[in-house]
Design brief:
This protein is α+β, with helices and mostly antiparallel strands. The chain folds into 2 domains: 45 residues, Arc Repressor Mutant, subunit A (Orthogonal Bundle), CATH 1.10.10.10; 78 residues, Alpha-Beta Plaits (2-Layer Sandwich), CATH 3.30.70. The chain has 6 helices and 4 strands. A 4-stranded antiparallel β-sheet has the order 2-3-1-4.
Length: 164
C-alpha cells in the first residue's frame, strides 16, 4: 500500500477538525486546488486507508459503556476459521492475532459486567477457544487516535516526536 504523504495528512487532519467539510471548503482551508483535494480523497477511499464512518460511533452511545480486552488462547489451526467464528460476535469491536501469552486479542463492548460475562462465555463456546483472560477498562486515558501521527507526517518529519 502506498504510504500517506504530507498533503494526505493535512487533508485528513482538516477533516478531523471539520468532518462535514466540503471538498471546496477543504481546498480553501488548505490552500490546495479543489481537484487535488477531491482526487486525494478518492484515492484514500480506493486504497482502503479510511475506516468506515461507523467506527467513529462510541459504544457507550449504543448502551454498551463497558469496554474490555479479552485475550484468547486457541488451538492450533485455521486462523481464518476462528476469525470467522469470532467475527459473528457483534460485541467484538476489534480483533488482532498477537504474540505473547494469548493468540488473539479482542476488544469488546458490553452493557454491564454481567453482559461481559455472557460475552466471554460465548467466546469460550467457540470450539477453537481454549481459554480467555479478560481485563476490563476502567478509565480511558487516551482515546483511539491517529492525529499525532498525521501531524508528524504533515510537518514533514515522518517519525514520532519524543514524549515529554
Amino acid at each position: 500500500m502506498k504510504a500517506l504523504d504530507a498533503t494526505d495528512a493535512r487533508i485528513l487532519r482538516a477533516l478531523d477538525d471539520d468532518p462535514l467539510a466540503t471538498v471546496v471548503a477543504l481546498a480553501r482551508t488548505l490552500g490546495l486546488a479543489r481537484n487535488t483535494v477531491q482526487a486525494r480523497l478518492h484515492s484514500l477511499e480506493q486504497r482502503g486507508v479510511l475506516d468506515p464512518p461507523s467506527v467513529r460511533v462510541r459504544p457507550h452511545a449504543m448502551g454498551r459503556p463497558v469496554l474490555a480486552y479479552v485475550s484468547l488462547t486457541i488451538t492450533q489451526g485455521d486462523i481464518e476459521q476462528i476469525s470467522a467464528e469470532l467475527s459473528a460476535v457483534p460485541e467484538i469491536l476489534e480483533m488482532h492475532a498477537t504474540t505473547g501469552d494469548g493468540d488473539i486479542l479482542a476488544k469488546v463492548a458490553a452493557r454491564d459486567p454481567a453482559d461481559l460475562h455472557r460475552i466471554t462465555r460465548r467466546l469460550l463456546d467457540c470450539p477453537s477457544v481454549v481459554r480467555t483472560s479478560t481485563a476490563m477498562a476502567v478509565l480511558e486515558l487516551v482515546p483511539a487516535r491517529t492525529a499525532p501521527l498525521l501531524d508528524d507526517l504533515a510537518a514533514g518529519s515522518g517519525s514520532s516526536r519524543a514524549v515529554r
